[in-house]
Amino acid sequence: MYVWPCAVVLAQYLWFHRGSLPGKAVLEIGAGVSLPGIIAAKCGAEVILSDSSELPHCLEICRQSCQMNNLPQVHVVGLTWGHVSRDLLALPPQDIILASDVFFEPEDFEDILTTVYFLMQKNPKVQLWSTYQVRSADWSLEALLYKWDMKCVHIPLESFGADKEDIAESALPGRHTVEMLVISFAKDSL
């Protein structure tokens, strides 16, 4: 459990857009140490952190991150991608879903997008703000995005000051190739 390069890039994107965050409902999935979610909460968003319900130690790390950052108002819930649970059903509509380096294992891609699709049903205008580390040119979300009626916009890192080897006095993201995406419903009428 440590801060991954993608988390720093997503945190930078949140900081760049901090003026639009107050009052927004934000859910971080696969939160781990929760850097992006913590930044969103510090910028005034109403944040829920989540990690796998099957990994209670990950949920405890989320709680510790909230405690260390004096954020008692941030809720932590267990969500397992691709599984419908009481916690998933009980979530209020979200404005933004954060996902830092969740597109790590290709066998998880559809479960992640299934969960996001479910959340999009509650608020069709929700956006998934996601960073991922390029690990293989063979891995793609394109077919799954089409299947789930979603579209993806690539956000150039230089557009929000994240095109450096170090951000905010951190050695991250280093020389890792990190990409930023905004995923939403493909329907133009929404």
Strand and helix map with partners:
Layout: H1 5-16, E1 25-29, H2 35-42, E2 46-51, H3 56-68, E3 75-78, H4 86-90, E4 96-100, H5 109-122, E5 127-133, H6 142-147, E6 150-155, E7 166-167, E8 170-173, E9 178-185
Parallel strand pairs: 1-2, 1-4, 2-3, 4-5
Antiparallel strand pairs: 5-9, 6-9, 7-8
Written account of the structure:
The protein is α/β, with parallel strands linked by helices and about 190 residues long. The protein has a domain at about 5-135: Rossmann fold (3-Layer(aba) Sandwich), CATH 3.40.50. Helices cover about 30% and strands about 25% of the residues. It has helices at about 5-15, 35-40, 55-70, 85-90, 110-120, 140-145; strands at about 25-30, 45-50, 75-80, 95-100, 125-135, 150-155, 165, 170-175, 180-185. The strands form two sheets. A seven-stranded mixed sheet has the order 3-2-1-4-5-9-6. Strands 7-8 form a two-stranded antiparallel ribbon. Helix 2 links the parallel strand 1 and strand 2 (about 45-50). The model has no long low-confidence stretch (mean pLDDT about 90). Its main location: cytoplasm. It is an enzyme of class 2 (transferase). GO terms for molecular function: DNA-binding transcription factor binding; heat shock protein binding; histone H3R17 methyltransferase activity; protein-arginine omega-N asymmetric methyltransferase activity. It catalyses: L-arginyl-[protein] + 2 S-adenosyl-L-methionine = N(omega),N(omega)-dimethyl-L-arginyl-[protein] + 2 S-adenosyl-L-homocysteine + 2 H(+).
